[in-house]
Write a structure and sequence with these properties.
About 15% of the residues lie in helices and about 55% in strands. The chain is an alpha+beta fold.
């Protein structure tokens, strides 16, 4: 094999392994502002064969690309090859331009699939 083909194969295997290691992803479907708080409609997708009893996400509110507030959110009961949708109240009611969320932790189901 040429070096270029070996490099391509190594990258493909690495990307596949990374996808398998990160079966959960989050989407913010809708953000609503209220006077003293905000609402976020979350969708957590699961590409694995396993059910997750709980997933925890950190969501950061930004103003002009600067973080102004962080809040943790718990999304429960994410089925295998499925999704969970949940509307959460956020304690932050100040101004923000955008919100970004990242994965913190998960708890797989003890009952399996």
């Amino acid at each position: 094999m040429t070096k270029l083909m070996m490099l391509g194969l190594a990258l493909a295997l690495t990307n596949g392994a990374a996808a398998a290691e990160k079966p959960l992803s989050i989407k913010l479907l809708k953000i609503e502002r209220a006077e003293s708080h905000s609402y976020i409609l979350f969708q957590v997708d699961n590409t694995s064969e396993h059910r997750f009893e709980a997933t925890t996400w950190s969501c950061v509110f930004f103003v002009k690309q600067q973080p102004v507030h962080e809040e943790r959110n718990l999304i429960e009961n994410v089925p295998p090859h499925g999704r969970a949708i949940k509307r959460e109240i956020q304690a932050y009611g100040g101004p923000y331009d955008s919100v970004e969320c990242r994965f913190l932790s998960s708890r797989p189901s003890a009952c399996g699939g």
